[in-house]
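Task card 7
Instruction: Convert sequence to structure tokens.
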Amino acid sequence: MVLLDGKKTSSDIKDEIKVTVTTMKERGEKVPHLAAVLVGSDGASLTYVGSKVRACEYVGFDSTLVELPDTTTEEELLNTIKGLNENDDIDGFIVQLPLPKHIDEQKVLMAVSPDKDVDGFHPENFGKMALDMESFIPATPFGILQLLERYQVETKGKHTVVIGRSHIVGRPMSILMSQKGPAGNSTVTLTHSYTKNLSEITKQADIIIVALGVPEFLKADMVKEGVVIVDVGISRVPDASKKRGYAIKGDVAFAEVSEKASFITPVPGGVGPMTIAMLLKNTLLARERNT
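Output:
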């Protein structure tokens, strides 16, 4: 069994980006500039945005954090986004989700310029991705593709089962895994909460990508020997034996499933770190396209 180490791989990617940025600086070129908009003070969002800022510092990007109170109106947020769209110094930006309930997330994501949408959430980018056109791929699916490619996991002609159909992970993964490319050319089955006899389908899978948010959902009796497992889930599960009072669990029962897997991502340290690395990669792509 080989561990698909997202922590190491993301570190490698950041080092590669750092070299590119250093060369840009030596040539006197403008370095990539990533901005993040944070509305409110959600703990997880604060942690995530903080790690993005630190990652920018490490690779040599310029970064801007726009912090707005949770009382911010939808109109005020849309005006902030308009300003970022029109700011030529900003190559790409993200609006950290979730947003306060009084703000329409879809309207906000639609307001982000597709040319600066480094999260890859805008329908124009999603549509281009589905049509094999140049676009920004959502960071988590992009990270999964990189993990599979860099660990030389064979995907061509394989049966990939995706569990979960979110617009952020499940649906884009189902498209990307079937497309031509180093981590594509597989036959894809997209499953969800209404899928019947799910374990019969997963037992046939060569590759399983799980993005449900249900701790330890995928058990050993649901997979075959030699399966490749990509676990996107991350949940806090109460655990009195831990100092912090909880344990971090993925969607896969790691201890038992890893006994049968040929490749598997750990949680934490698998897909999670890749997301930030690919956000940086998308920002670098945005900078190159805006030259």
